[in-house]
Design a protein that fits this description.
Layout lengths: L1 H31 L12 H26 L6 E6 L5 E3 L12 H6 L2 H7 L23 H11 L46 H5 L5 H10 L38 E3 L11 E3 L21 H10 L7 H7 L6 H12 L23 H11 L18 E2 L10 E3 L2 E3 L5 E2 L21 H11 L6 H12 L2
Antiparallel strand pairs: 1-2, 3-4, 5-8, 6-7
Helix pairs in contact: 7-10, 8-10, 11-13, 12-13
Length: 466
């Protein structure tokens, strides 16, 4: 009996050891595919910053080499087109094609042929974050400099720099148009709205509830890369970021991030920050457009998007939980006031006035509503159907890893409004299209439209008038 008991005990020890080994193996495997970020940082902050700062030049060189191989990043302003406050619109197709390939040849090929011959233009692949495995909010230099000047708040990351040249971004700071006071025109006075000046700019224009909503939109709150913990990417502890750090003046500055609702990391989409202009006529929000009101969107941003969709990390870094009945409501009401810029050539139905439009613009409108089929998803007057559509771009190429980003199916994407589109480069949900000309070439190929060179030019002219 004693021997049997001893053997049973040894058996129990062996079984427990095996179970422990299996558990550790499972934990190791799970950690490689985990939906969660590490909560406890074991490496000292000074060591992290030193290591990532040293790696920065090579990371940025690799990314900028990719951009330069895909695009012409030069400054080529249009002679006859500007944004609302006068910044020149960049013109021309910037996507570089494979050797001996032309857009006309591509237009004649089937998706299967393009895929088989591997001639899908590099600039049409999904655009990676400057460091896709790392990700996180990343701001253009002009915005970083102005926020530092006004608030002494530093949005510089020690590990990365913003990648797109300033001339390819929206004008800074952008004008602000209000649905409630169209008679005032641009109410920004040419200034970037911040916590320092919002009251003087809007007292007497907004009501008290709206003023409070605006205050919250320009108040810094902790975020994944900018917070008070050692788990940050700013040299000093940070107060955080504001809604208007990306959606500058209710518009956009081209700041980028990664969507918070996709795993694993290599499948997460880079984000091109959309404008808040025209939020009042939109019905879908969020990176996957699963949010059905701007209130849902506002609450989601604070709770999830700021922290890569990870509530554990959010709690650690100091998430700001907004109160739905007042704070969220106030912020949403302000966002719904931001209007599209004036379009003097459009009538009350959102169509061109023949007395004001050029011949090229009129031809472009006919193509838009006809041969190009743009209006299937972008009907007047706001040029959105408030739906999502799957372009199935993956028909044209085999999946591949590009600087840490797996280029594969994009899935359904939202139909963004085209009103004021010339003010909002770059284009598509991840900013892979730098100009309207690039955008036309993309859709001409994806939809197999076979537009002529002149039809493409007229289509761009029309979109600039929206």
């Amino acid at each position: 009996m004693k021997t049997t008991g001893r053997l049973s005990f040894l058996t129990w020890i062996i079984v427990c050891s095996l179970l422990m080994a299996l558990a550790l193996a499972f934990a190791e495997t799970a950690s490689q595919k985990s939906s969660y970020s590490p909560v406890v940082i074991t490496e000292p902050f000074d060591s992290i910053m030193k290591r990532m700062t040293a790696a920065k030049p090579e990371i940025m060189k690799r990314h900028m080499d990719l951009l330069n191989s895909r695009y012409d990043l030069g400054d080529h302003p249009a002679r006859d087109a500007t944004m609302s406050r006068g910044k020149p619109v960049q013109e021309g197709v910037r996507i570089k094609l494979p050797a001996e390939m032309t857009w006309e040849k591509l237009a004649e090929m089937t998706p299967e042929e393009i895929k088989e011959k591997d001639v899908f233009p590099a600039g049409l692949f999904p655009l990676p974050h400057p460091n896709h495995p790392e990700g996180g909010m990343l701001f253009p230099k002009k915005h970083i400099d102005e926020i530092k000047k006004q608030e002494a708040r530093d949005l510089t990351r020690f590990d990365l720099e913003f990648d797109l040249p300033e001339h390819l971004l929206p004008e800074f700071p952008p004008p602000i148009y209000l649905t409630t006071r169209p008679d005032l025109g641009d109410v920004s006075q040419g200034k970037l709205v911040t916590i320092e000046n919002f009251f003087e700019l809007f007292n007497g224009i907004l009501n008290p509830k709206q003023l409070e909503g605006l205050r919250l939109l320009v108040t810094p709150f902790p975020q994944q890369q900018f917070n008070q913990t050692d788990d940050r990417r700013s040299a000093k502890p940070s107060r955080g970021v504001t809604c208007f750090d990306c959606h500058v003046n209710g518009h956009t500055n081209g700041a980028t991030h990664l969507v918070g609702d996709i795993r694993p990391q290599e499948f997460r989409h880079r984000l091109d920050t959309p404008p808040l202009r025209g939020v009042n006529i939109q019905r879908l929000f969020g990176s996957q457009r699963a949010l059905k009101s701007v209130e849902d969107f506002t609450e989601f941003e604070q709770r999830a998007a700021y922290f890569d969709g990870d509530p554990v990390i959010a709690t650690k870094k100091g998430v700001n939980i907004l109160e739905r009945g007042s704070q969220v409501h106030f912020m949403a009401e302000v966002q719904e006031l931001f209007d599209f810029p004036p379009a003097p050539k459009l009538d009350i139905y959102g169509r061109l006035d023949p007395k004001k439009a050029t011949e090229s613009e009129m031809k472009g409108e006919a193509i838009f509503f006809g041969k190009a089929k743009c209006a299937v998803c972008h009907p007047a007057p706001y040029y959105t159907d408030n739906l999502m559509h799957n372009l199935r771009t993956e028909r044209f190429y085999k999946p591949r890893m590009i600087n840490g980003r797996m280029a594969s199916a994009d899935g359904p994407i939202k139909t963004f409004p085209l009103r004021g589109i010339k003010d909002s480069p770059p284009y598509l949900h991840d900013g892979r299209l730098l100009t309207l000309e690039d955008t036309v070439e993309f859709f001409n190929m994806i939809q197999q439209l076979k537009l002529t060179a002149q039809e493409k030019k007229d289509l761009v002219a029309f979109m600039r008038a929206l």
